[in-house]
Design brief:
3-stranded mixed sheet, alpha+beta, 90 residues
Amino acid sequence: LMSVLAAVEIWYDPDPSSTIIEEDSVFIESFFSIPDEEIESNLHLQLPWFLHLKLNHAKMIDHKLSMAYVTGRITESFKTADVLVRVKII
């Protein structure tokens, strides 16, 4: 996946249920618009720091990688089911 990464950054977002990151606001609002007791009960476990990965769309096409594949590989690398992946392609 390193070949399709445009940037990797560490960002701070204090409240996982509503974001201070303007470009993520629609995604977060949509995600939390459907109530889910399990997610809501575990919000206190979420850290305010997260990895912000930017993917290069042209390189993804060149390597014939789907978003499902990329998301799956990211989740696998953390060896846990507790990974929320917010992906934006540039």
